[in-house]
Amino acid sequence: MAKVTIMEHPLIRHKIGIIRETQTGTRDFREMISEIAMLECYEATRDLKLEDVEIDTPITRTTVKRLAGKKLAIIPILRAGLGMVPGMETLIPSAKVGHIGMYRDPETLAPVEYYCKLPADIEERDVFVVDPMLATGGSAIDAINQLKKHGCKNIRFLCIIAAPEGLENLQKAHPDVDIIVGSLDEKLNEHGYIVPGLGDAGDRIFGTK
Questions:
Q1: What domains appear along the chain, each with residue ranges and CATH number?
Q2: pLDDT band at 191 (very low <50, low <70, confident <90, very high)
Q3: Is the pLDDT of residue 192 over 90?
Q4: Does the annotation count 203 as an active-site position?
Q5: pTM of the predicted model, to two decimals?
Q6: Binding site annotation covers 104?
Q7: Which of 62, 108, 121, 208 is catalytic?
Q8: Is 200 tagged catalytic?
Q9: Rounded CA gap, 173 and 107, in Å?
Q10: From 5, 24, 28, 200, the catalytic residue
Q11: Is 204 a catalytic residue?
């Protein structure tokens, strides 16, 4: 079964508390989403492999550690996932960025894919799929299905808020995908929104509602 990490870092808990508030404006909300993603990225990259490299310092020649030629990719689920990309790129600027576009059918709550653009060598990369909200899990499951069809083997999923139902569904569908969660909330309501949650992350990131 996949490893699930629920982040307990004080900075993450503090920032999630701020983005939950109704009065938090678009600019602050967007910045906080990016900062939380950066902190989660720190955890998600904890086991990247290193290699020894000889360099010259201003004082002497020495051996330092560098990432061992690891190819990484960040795949946001559109559109809310875009808000997590800048923070992650701060830590891993060489990562390629692909996009998977999905929306939730308002009647069935099922995900509908409308766009997929991935790096040409995606199957060779360690992939971080990102979406602020893991509600039913449908979009995450379908996005990962798409990536596996393209040959991806090393996939991790990062979200900021998760409902227990979505977490369970994602684990069942993809037991080989590790999951990093900022906060595990109480439940889904009858409309498929996470409780207590923070509303529609996409609308709040882009100021469209």
A1: 4-206 (3.40.50.2020)
A2: confident
A3: no
A4: yes
A5: 0.91
A6: yes
A7: 108
A8: yes
A9: 23
A10: 200
A11: no
